Amino acid sequence: MSSLFLSLLAATCAFAAPSRRQSPFPDPHLCQSSSNDCRSIHDPSVVQRKSDGKYFRLSTFENIHISVADSLSGDWAHLGSALPDGSKLFGQLPDNQGIWAPDTYEVDDVWYMFYAVSTSGTRNSDIGVATSSCVDNPSHCLEPGTWQDLGSIGIPEPNEDTLNYNKIDPNLLDVDGRGSFLLSFGSYWGDIYQVSMQNPPTQVAGTPKQIEYNNTARPDGETPGPQEGSYQFRWSVNNVLYYYLFFDSGACCNTASSSDPNGLAPAGEEYKVMVCRSTSPTGPFTDDQDRDCVSQNGGKMVLGSHGSIYAPGGQGVMWDDQEQSVVMYYHYGSSTPRRISYPTNKPSEPEHWL
Fold first, then answer.
1. Which of 27, 37, 43, 126 is catalytic?
2. Any idea what the Cα angle at residue 52 is, between residues 42 and 143, rounded to 5°?
3. I want to staple 212 with a disulfide (CB 3.0 to 4.6 A). Which of 55, 192, 271, 299 is the partner?
């Protein structure tokens, strides 16, 4: 099948560092902020409020950092925290927890923000949900002060057998637009799992199922095939409805074995965005070579390091009304200087994903 082509939303890039490797991926359009609100952005979730068309970006740190802009490009401005007093999960898990990786989705004029509470490198984790209603407050929903924390969504505790997962990196899929929901999650261990959700999606409604796994050997005896940060997206190609499973492969950051002062993984081991797809929302998912993404280490790379962009990941995919296009957004660590920022890429044709 055709390879993925990514087109620019703008013709310029903020960096001009030498490329670490040859890559087919162009530089992205970078996040713009006159208030320096595009640095240290991890795991962004970007949505658009219906009442006024404003874009909201929720991300890791500061008990879920919330920013607002009039377009994906910016000018992004920090508003505050979604959960300034922390999560109900703080009292149910060991100390030194952080709130990570929000995923935000609207159902019947109520926004649901799924989030993970965890400590890096452990399975002392859980996934919670908070809501912000637009029913009585259409011009203020999504903003700080409107979020109600509901606590855990009830994913069963992991084990070393069929439920060998870490409860982080949630993402909600509305299967058919009629209230059938699936949540994907997972990081390392058994990689990516999926579980059905109730409607409204505040609690699980089934047993998690593994939908992606990779056991490729890695250097120096490190954990095989780290995969995380899944994102589910449905899109029709030639009148066939496909369910795409995007996920991150490799090490994001804060790697103990890294010689990089910022903890970025060495070239070849760093974050990259992979994809598999299926005609069923629950799989089995396969890649462009028809490799199964659970049993055959399947997955096609659709975005990797290139130019000043190093270790792209934490991605989301959305339809943008202003661009009239499907857009991928993500964080990355740049080559020189290394930092986390927030760009967007516009896939020219979704049928080229696989």
1. 43
2. 45
3. 192
**For residue 237, what are its two tokens?**
């190609």
- Confidence category of residue 249, pLDDT binned at 50, 70, 90: very high
The helix/strand/coil state of 351 is helix
What does 126-169 look like in DSSP terms, one character per residue?
A: EEEEEEEE-SS-TTTTTSTT--EEEEE--PPPP-SSTT------
Q: Which of 259, 294, 264, 254 is nearest to 278 (CA)?
A: 294
Look up 43 and say whether it is catalytic: yes
Question: How is the chain split among helix, strand and coil, in percent rounded to 5?
Answer: 5, 40, 55
CA pair distance 331, 345, nearest whole angstrom: 11
Averaged over 21-49, what is the pLDDT?
Answer: 84
Compute the distance between CA of residue 29 and CA of residue 225 in angstroms, rounded to an integer: 30
Residue 169's nearest CA partner among 125, 201, 205, 208 is 125
Cα separation, 188 vs 190, in Å, equals 6
Distance in angstroms (rounded) separating the CA atoms of residues 85 and 81: 9
Q: What's the mean pLDDT when you consider all of the chain?
A: 86
Identity of residue 73: S
**Cα separation values, 18 from 9, 28, 261, 306, Å:** 21, 15, 19, 9
Any residues with CB less than 8 A from the CB of 176 and at least 6 apart, and which? none
Q: What angle do CA 283, 286, 290 make, to 5 degrees?
A: 140
Look up 62 and say whether it is catalytic: no
Q: Catalytic residue, from 126, 149, 169, 228: name it.
A: 228
**In the 8-state DSSP scheme, what is residue 25?**
P
Contact 164, 144 (CB under 8 A): no
Residues 6+ positions from 105 with CB-CB distance below 8 Å:
47, 111, 112, 114, 172, 174, 201
More reliable by pLDDT, 87 or 338 = 87
